[in-house]
Specification:
single chain, D-Maltodextrin-Binding Protein, domain 2, Dipeptide-binding Protein, domain 1, Dipeptide-binding Protein, domain 3, 3 domains, eleven-stranded mixed beta sheet, four-stranded antiparallel beta sheet, 12 helices, 21 strands, globular
């Protein structure tokens, strides 16, 4: 559960908040995207869709045609008005080009849940889907469906509470959007320092050079011992092992053997220091309510039986993005598989491999939309037939029974906050809501 940073004073306008992160500012699901860009809908704390750039929507034709009415008088950061054409171009591009701006990570676009998006009026957009999509409003809250455009210089323009002011010295500077439809943020600007090692982040926080820094889940206990002011999300990041259903794992029995060989308890207890929750499900227990139905038990004897006595052929494993704790987790899984008779070799990060350990961020807070998202991101083509927990469980069981995806742990997101930050909370996505935060006035 996210706790608000202390609010000893009334909100104060002004100041520059400094935040440090390990990754890229423009990566998918990143903080910068949420501050600069808006989506048609947003998510409430309960996971239901609420108005953002769209103020109303309705469904027809068995949830296969959706009409979205756009919010009036919304302007991009360059002063041009938001139009239905802008929304159509953005949503269409989300399915055709890598996510993010020219400075983004280059991650490939994910298939979109519609077959057509078109303008139906000056402030009306229609989306049609090939099958009933009752959770489309929730899905549209994902950052990959943000509405944006580029100016003549290639600069990304959005409608969010902050606009891009520049990038220098390893920091992306965002300035307050005075004319934001959501209202002006309290902060004058936000500086996002990228590619900062965790220990450097904590040092900067301790000496006042940073206001908000990241806490990896495996370091939460250490942060608590240091009495840091911490914000912790619900479990939002799925640690999963994916298996290539070719070569050594073309036989489903071999994939099942690998799944039975993994020791989730050792990952949880040793690598991630008892943070998060052990899982064999694509959705966390607080969201689905049925995660416990998927067994997390290790069965090494059964794994050895399924693998049989055939000579072990070398199998490569990589950890994406590699390095640090994820690399340690991959090496421990390699030992697990070795005990079952597999011969695993670690491959450099980013190289093609038979086994990939990855973290997939859950960008949804409603069960149906969340399962749709996870199935898409993990390359599963299973259709969810219904919105009740039983239908979700059946779809998830079908997706997991071929053992090409082995869920391992659900992990929270955590941040440490400096003393001068006021009224900071985490969004349902686990990101700091900096548009609502303020800094204590200088004395």
């Amino acid at each position: 559960m996210a706790l608000a940073a202390s609010a000893r004073t009334r909100p104060h306008y002004g100041g520059t908040l400094r935040i440090e992160i390990q990754g890229d500012a423009w990566a998918p699901d990143s903080l910068a995207r949420r501050l600069v860009l808006n989506t048609l809908t947003d998510l409430s704390d309960s996971g239901t869709a609420q108005p953002a750039l769209a103020i109303a929507w309705s469904a027809q034709n068995n949830d296969q045609r959706w009409d979205f009415q756009l919010r009036p008088q919304v302007r991009f950061h360059d002063g041009t008005p938001l139009t239905a054409e802008d929304v159509v171009v953005s949503l269409t591009s989300a399915c055709a080009v890598p996510m993010g701006s020219a400075a983004a990570s280059g991650a490939p676009a994910v298939a979109c849940p519609w077959n057509a998006v078109y303008v139906a009026g000056p402030s009306e957009v229609v989306i049609t889907t090939p099958a009933p999509q009752p959770d489309l409003p929730e899905l549209l809250a994902q950052t990959r469906f943000s509405v944006s455009k580029q100016d003549d210089t290639g600069q990304l323009e959005g409608t969010g509470p902050f606009r891009v002011a520049g990038f220098s010295g390893g920091a992306l500077t965002l300035a307050a959007n005075d004319d934001c439809w959501q209202g002006r943020p309290f902060l004058d600007s936000v500086e996002i320092f990228t590619h900062r090692a965790i220990r450097d982040q904590w040092l900067d926080l301790s000496v006042g050079r940073a206001d908000v820094v990241q806490i990896p889940p495996e370091m939460l206990g250490q942060a608590q011992q240091q009495h840091l002011d911490i914000l912790v999300s619900q479990p939002l990041d799925l640690l999963a092992l994916t298996l290539d259903a070719q070569g050594s794992f073309a036989d489903p029995a071999m994939r099942q053997a690998a799944a039975l060989a993994v020791d989730r308890a050792s990952l949880y207890n040793v690598i991630f220091q008892k943070q998060g929750e052990i899982t064999a499900s694509l959705l966390p227990e607080p969201l689905s309510g049925y995660s416990f139905l998927f067994s997390t038990d290790r069965d090494l004897m059964r794994a050895r039986t399924l693998r049989g006595g055939a000579p072990a052929r070398p199998i490569t494993m990589s950890a994406d993005p590699g390095g640090g704790t994820l690399q340690l987790a991959a090496e421990r899984l390699a030992l697990n598989l070795d005990e079952a008779g597999f011969a695993v070799q670690m491959a450099p990060p980013g190289t093609p491999s038979t086994l990939d350990l990855r973290i997939v961020h859950l960008d949804e807070a409603s069960p149906l939309a969340a399962l749709d998202e996870m199935l898409t991101r993990l390359g599963q083509t299973v259709t969810v037939n219904g919105t009740d927990p039983h239908a979700l469980w059946l779809a998830e069981r079908t997706a997991l029974q071929n053992y090409t995806v082995v869920p391992l742990l659900w992990l929270p997101r955590a941040w440490a906050v400096g003393e001068r930050v006021r009224d900071l909370r985490l969004s349902p996505h686990g990101e700091p809501q900096l548009a609502d935060a303020s800094l204590e006035a200088a004395r």
